[in-house]
Specification:
It is a single chain. The longest helix has 22 residues, at 228-249. This protein has two domains: 5-176, 3-Layer(aba) Sandwich (Rossmann fold), CATH 3.40.50.620; 205-343, TPP-binding domain (Rossmann fold), CATH 3.40.50. By secondary structure, the chain is α/β, with parallel strands linked by helices. Helix 5 links the parallel strand 13 (205-209) and strand 14. Helix 3 packs across helix 4 (98-110) and helix 5 (228-249) runs parallel beside helix 9. The relative contact order is 0.11. The chain is elongated. The chain has helices at 18-34, 48-56, 75-86, 98-110, 228-249, 258-262, 293-299, 316-319, 328-343; strands spanning 5-8, 11-12, 15-16, 38-44, 61-66, 91-95, 115-119, 121-125, 128-135, 140-145, 152-156, 174-176, 205-209, 253-256, 283-287, 304-309, 322-325. It has nine helices and 17 strands. The strands form four sheets. A seven-stranded parallel beta sheet has the order 7-11-6-1-4-5-12, with helices on both faces. Helices cover 30% and strands 24% of the residues. The mean pLDDT is 95. The structure holds flavin-adenine dinucleotide. Flavin-adenine dinucleotide is lined by residues 210-212, 215-216, 257-260, 271-276, 288-290, 292, 294-295, 298, 308-311, 314, 327-329.
Length: 345
């Protein structure tokens, strides 16, 4: 392998995270400054097509490590293989995901180097990568550099870097990495699919609902729903139904506050925030969400934020580019109708 800038292509059973291609775009900039090329590293089983894709997205070449023992992501063997592939590299980029949080940290330990997670901006100065990353739940941005140790390992936040346009005419060498898999202490027993729809972290548009989605006292639940909590859930379903209409028109993903999740209105998979997903869509529409610091931690890097809230003092308005003070049960259907007309749907 000749290139000093490596990108680990994160994937689930051969389907790459779009953020992997964003990481290749970020890597190209670093590589240009360092006078190097970009090598994609792909680990798994039956993952050769990802090497071709990585080259189309801007890698100069690719290294593939395939073995039946790597069919499921397990951090221990993946870290062994990636450490081997990256041992001579100057920079290793990975897209931020649940998998790479573990993987990048383990490779950093193996190679006795440093790691900067969840980076949103990158500059290169004198061969060193200066990485900007949010800290303290996004209240501060810190600039980090990994000095004197190599590779400099960084994970890039999903949607923080533009995804390059694929170019099918690009070509590059694809080589197989020689390696052995030892005893692996973990085994994946199975997978259970989370709630469907557009993936939150990859979505360009997210429409979210908070505790406010259940707050419409004028809605009368059917007679058979007598329990107070069930009535609240029923109201929340009506509110999330309206939010869902807007999600549909905008081909968006559905987000939620923790209050809405904890109250049982919507599954945890939809939660945005410090203890949920961290997202950076082009457009984030918060409905009936107050804007607690823990929620903002998950969405404050969204490009345009729109807030709908009854309370003009709600903290979310301090961050929002556009705010509508009003009842979401009136405003959301009006937004849906306006977008429908504008988008010709
Ligand atoms: C350790 C820790 C981690 C946490 N992690 C997260 C996290 O990951 N994500 C997260 O979201 N929270 C998280 N929280 C919880 C967070 O502190 C807030 O409690 C939560 O975000 C509040 O959710 P909410 O805005 O939906 O509810 P509320 O704060 O109750 O706000 C509801 C809002 O809806 C408005 N409203 C009510 N009715 C209507 C209506 N009809 N039309 C329009 N507006 C209306 C109200 O004016 C209000 O502003 C965490 C807390 C802790 C302590």
């Amino acid at each position: 392998m000749t290139n000093k800038v490596l990108v680990y292509v994160d994937h689930f059973k051969g389907e790459a995270l779009p953020a992997s291609w964003e990481a290749i775009g970020a890597a190209r900039k670093i590589a240009e400054s360092l006078g190097s090329g970009v090598t994609a590293v792909i680990i798994g089983q039956d993952v050769q097509p990802l090497a071709t894709q990585a080259i189309e997205y801007g890698a100069d070449d690719a290294v593939v490590a395939e073995n039946p023992a790597l069919a499921d992501f397990r951090p221990e063997p993946y870290a062994d293989v990636l450490s081997k592939a990256a041992a001579e590299a100057d920079v290793l980029l990975l897209p931020t995901s649940g998998r790479t949080r573990e993987l990048a940290a383990m490779v950093a330990v193996d190679l006795e180097t440093g790691m900067a997670p969840d980076v949103i901006e990158i500059e290169v100065d004198g061969g060193l990568v200066l990485a900007t990353r949010p800290i303290y739940a996004g209240k501060l941005l810190s600039k980090v550099v990994i000095k004197e140790r190599k590779p400099q390992i960084l994970t890039t936040r999903s949607r923080a870097f533009p995804k390059p346009e694929p170019d099918a005419s690009r070509s590059g060498e694809i080589t197989n990495l020689e390696f052995e898999v030892g005893d692996v202490p973990t085994e994946v027993l199975g997978y259970k699919e989370a709630a469907g729809g557009v993936s939150l972290t990859d979505a360009a548009v997210i429409v979210s609902g908070g505790r406010g989605v259940s707050n419409n006292p004028s809605l009368t639940p059917p007679d058979e729903i007598t329990d107070e909590k069930d009535q609240e859930i029923w109201r929340a379903q009506q509110g999330f139904g309206l939010v869902g209409d807007l999600v549909g028109v905008l081909n968006a993903a559905m987000g939620a506050s923790r209050a809405a999740v904890d109250a049982g209105y919507i599954p945890y998979a939809n939660q945005v925030g410090q203890t949920g997903k961290v997202v950076s869509p082009d457009l984030y529409i918060a409905n009936g969400i107050s804007g607690a610091i823990q929620h903002l931690a998950g969405m404050r890097t969204s490009k345009t934020i729109v807030a709908v809230n009854k309370d003009p003092e709600a903290p979310i308005f301090r961050l929002a580019r556009f705010g509508v003070v009003g009842d979401l049960f009136d405003v959301v259907p009006a937004l849906t109708a306006a977008f429908k007309e504008r988008l010709g749907k």
